[in-house]
Fold this protein.
Amino acid sequence: MRVIFCRLIFLYVMLALAAALCFSACATGTLNISQSLSPSELIQRAQEASDRNRYNYALQYYQALRERNSANAELVCVAEYEIAFIHYKQKKYIQARTELNALLDRYASGEENLPPQFSLLAKKVLERIDEKEKARPFFARKT
């Protein structure tokens, strides 16, 4: 009887540790992003975070890129496209569609010095969203 009790305690302790490890690894918070980081360093760190599926961190880096470089149309386009693409990867299709359409509106306005690749990429992602939306039943479309 005592052996069973010890095994149960051990099992509960191991489950508690596993749950604590899982929740701490999945936790996301606010980053303290150094003001000294260059735009290329912000993009690099955002890409690294995104590659590790740490989308909240990647979003924070791209938002910092957009805020710190608001006068640079190319960097703003990079940030806006990447933010929308992260929302697409998170299956937040309505939000991604809204952001991609806003980016395409920027191109349609005739603003100068916009890199052409993000217009093309935005259109491709919008097509993918349309395909995914058509494939899902209507009642399942929430995001």
